[in-house]
Amino acid sequence: MISMNLVNNLKYILLFCFIVFLFGNNTNAGNKSDPLLLLTDSVKDVEGTIEEWALHTREQLTEEESEDAARFLQTYLSDWKVLFTDKKENVMFTAVHSHGTVQQQVKIVSSGTAGSVAYVLYSVTATDEEEMREFLAKDFESAYSHIFHSTPQVFTCIKGKFDDKLEEVLPNQLSHLLSGWEAEKKEVVSEKDFYSLTAFSDQFSSSLLLPDNEMNVQVGLRKKQEGAGTNFVIGTPIITIEY
C-alpha cells in the first residue's frame, strides 16, 4: 500500500513540475542536446538501463501569434500527421511525426482564460539510444529553430531501471551520479519504496529558482512492483514526465 504521505508528496512534486514547465521563465540552454547526452552517459557509467529519452519545450504566444504559428506549422510540417483540434481542451493545433522509435509532437494550446495567452509545446521521445542520438545530431536544432520564435528552455528526461534494490541504489548508483555531477543536494523526499532528490550542478547550464535555493537536476527512484530492481526518472532542470 502507498502511504497518504507519499501520495501527497508525489502530488506536490508533479504539480510543481507542471507549473514551472508551463509558466517558468525561459532561459537559453546553450547546446540544447548536451544535457540529455550527459544524463545518458552518466547513467550508463553506473550500469543503469535507459528505456526512454524525452525532450520537452514550450513557448508563450499571444492569441494572434498562435493563429499565425498554427498556419505556419501546418505548412512547415506538411509531412507530419495533423490531428483534429479539440476546442473543449483548448487545443488549437496538433501534429505528430514518427521515424523509428523517435516520436515528435507539436501542439498549440490556449490557456482558455480572459485575455488568454497560448503556448507552443514541442516534445520528442525515443526508446532507442542510437536513434535519439542521430536525431539530436541531425534534426533537432533545425526543428527547434523553425518551431519557436525565441530560444525557450529545453527540459530533458530519461527513465529506466537499475538492477539493484532501492536501498542499494542510494549509496551506490545515486551517490556516484551526484559525485560525477559534483552536485549539491537541495531537497529530498524519502519513503519506504520511493525516493526523490533535487540538486544543483554546474555541469547543467540552465537552472530554476526554488523559494530558498537554486536547482537544475532532479532524480526520482521507485522500487519495482515485481522482482528486484529500481525504476528511475532523471531530468534537468526538472522532471517533466510522470514518475
TrEMBL record:
Provide the coiled-coil residue spans.
none
Kindly give the InterPro entries that the UniProt entry links to this protein. DUF1779, YwmB-like_sf
Gene3D superfamilies membership = YwmB-like
**What's the superkingdom here?**
Bacteria
Q: What is this protein called?
A: TATA-box binding protein
Q: Which organism is it from?
A: Bacillus aerolatus
